[in-house]
Specification:
By secondary structure, this protein is mainly alpha-helical. Among the domains are: about 1-120, Serine Threonine Protein Phosphatase 5, Tetratricopeptide repeat (Alpha Horseshoe), CATH 1.25.40.10; about 140-190, no CATH class. The chain is built from 27 helices and no strands. Helix 23 runs parallel beside helix 25, helix 24 runs antiparallel to helix 25 (about 450-460) and helix 25 (about 450-460) packs antiparallel against helix 26.
């Protein structure tokens, strides 16, 4: 009888123990799914730590142990543990997914992809988990398909709608993302980061006031988010033209994280748009101390401003600012051309000289040809025909080099040959002048001024009939000054 009692007691204990184990395993499983659903990293950490404590040797406990190793950047140890999980639970997706993450962190993308695909295949019966894996591996279209299957039976699953909205967001399908965020908006449970995401979608749909409204809420929820201050500052500066308010936001960004270089840059641009150039320059220099590209970008912006008023005092002012921040030969050339258009030959010549000097360090055949062409043109105006001819020699050499690769070079080559022909004519080298005109007409047989120059050079050499025919051709092609020369030389 005693023996029978002992047997029954042991059976009862065993059954109770099995029930407790099953209950603990179910709790671990439930916590595991909750940890995948949460957006809060601290909450996820606490859930996974509890799983490790209550069920350390289960698949969920081992996965969480590997997860903590990855968080601690012990990727090789996590990889070894992932292999153990797979050996112990070969038909479960968790080990393969864990191993895929390890391989990705170790820069072995090929093995990462293989393991992610195995995890997706093994999670086929759990649409939420499969969709989550696809989401985490950036297969957003695939994740949406799986989340839709979950919603078919549970249309109000908040976490699934959230992940579906974020999938559309990551695909830049802002309309669909907006629709799904709208569903979440009616729910009292607002996840961390929702207001930021909703604001970003509205920004991309050009609903700037709404975006600012929700960024206000995001900042109220998390006043230490440099990202939200930056986003709000960007909308205010780039879209709403509220530069002073934008500056206040960017200053807050810097207060929270003084390494965000683009915040310094955007403050500079905002001051520039307010007309406060001295403040603008100060902030651009601060941005440039972190990354030199900001100096180059600021210079480029001012060059573009100059193009809008090319040939004016304003363009020279803008190009001077550009040169102050980035001594590019193209900026000197542009400013020199503006000086030339304002008939300031002295400063134009200085800028062309600077451009040529810089081009020895930064070769650009096309630009070099243009600079020599423009400097030669000024020398021509100053009656320095030999100096002008020397510059046109260099321009012609440059343009011939790129004749077949640069469309503009054809026109500039013709102009250079034509202008050198004028220099040679002025120096009474009539044959040389005719040869340059012939070269220009070989490239473009409708180049009217070349006919005109060749015409007067032929007349000067005593070939009046041929010369007058050239002048007539120039007039026929639209160069009307040729008719005055006909009146004077062809009677």
């Amino acid at each position: 009888m005693k023996l029978l009692f002992v047997v029954f007691f042991l059976l009862w204990c065993n059954t109770t123990l099995i029930g407790q184990v099953a209950s603990t395993l179910q709790e671990a499983k439930d916590l595991f799914e909750m940890s995948w659903r949460t957006e809060n990293e601290e909450e996820r950490r606490q859930q996974r730590q509890k799983i490790r404590e209550i069920s350390p040797e289960s698949i969920y406990g081992l996965y969480c142990k590997a997860w903590f190793l990855r968080v601690e950047k012990k990727y090789n140890e996590a990889l070894i543990l992932s292999n153990t999980i797979i050996a112990k639970f070969p038909n479960n997706w968790e080990g393969y997914y864990s191993r895929g993450v390890c391989y990705e962190l170790l820069k072995n993308n090929q093995q990462a992809t293989i393991n992610y695909n195995l995890a997706i295949k093994l999670s086929a019966n759990d649409y939420f988990m499969r969709g989550s894996i696809k989401f985490n591996t950036k297969d957003y279209k695939g994740s949406i398909e799986d989340f839709d299957k979950v919603l078919a039976s549970n249309f109000n699953d908040y976490d699934v709608i959230r992940l579906k909205a974020q999938s559309y967001h990551n695909l830049s399908d802002y309309e669909k993302a907006f629709e799904n965020y709208q569903i979440l908006l009616g729910n009292n449970k607002i996840y961390e980061g929702f207001y930021s995401n909703y604001a970003n979608v509205n920004k991309n749909l050009n609903r700037y006031e709404t975006a600012v409204e929700y960024l206000d809420k995001a900042i109220a929820q998390n006043p230490n988010s440099a990202y939200d201050y930056f986003e709000r500052g960007w909308i205010k500066s780039e879209r709403l033209k509220e530069y002073q308010a934008a500056i206040a936001d960017y200053l807050k960004v810097i207060e929270l994280d003084n390494k965000i270089d683009v915040a310094y840059f955007n403050i500079g641009i905002s001051y520039s748009n307010l007309g406060n150039i001295s403040e603008a320059k100060e902030w651009i220099r601060k941005a440039g101390q972190i990354d030199k590209k900001h100096l180059e970008k600021f210079a480029s912006i001012y060059r573009m401003k100059a193009m809008g008023s090319f040939g004016s005092e304003k363009s020279i002012e803008f190009l001077s600012i550009a040169i102050e921040f980035d001594e590019e030969p193209v900026y000197y050339h542009s400013r020199g051309t503006s000086y030339s258009l304002l008939d300031d030959k002295t400063n134009a010549m200085k800028d062309f000289n600077s451009a040529i000097s810089l081009l020895t360090l930064k070769p650009d055949i096309s630009l070099l040809g243009k600079v020599y062409y423009d400097r030669g043109f000024i020398k021509n105006q100053l009656k320095d025909f030999r100096g002008s001819m020397s510059d046109y020699d260099k321009a012609i050499t440059s343009f011939y080099k790129i004749l077949n690769t640069d469309k503009e070079s054809k026109m500039l080559l013709c102009k250079s040959l034509n202008n050198r022909a004028i220099c040679k004519y002025e120096l009474k080298d009539y044959l040389g002048s005719i040869n340059d005109c012939n070269a220009a007409l070989k490239i473009d047989n409708n180049y009217e001024t070349a006919y005109c120059i060749r015409g007067i050079a032929r007349i000067a050499m005593g070939y009046k009939d041929l010369g007058c025919q050239d002048l007539s051709k120039a007039g026929e092609l639209g160069y009307t000054p040729a008719y005055d020369l006909i009146q004077k030389n062809c009677k």
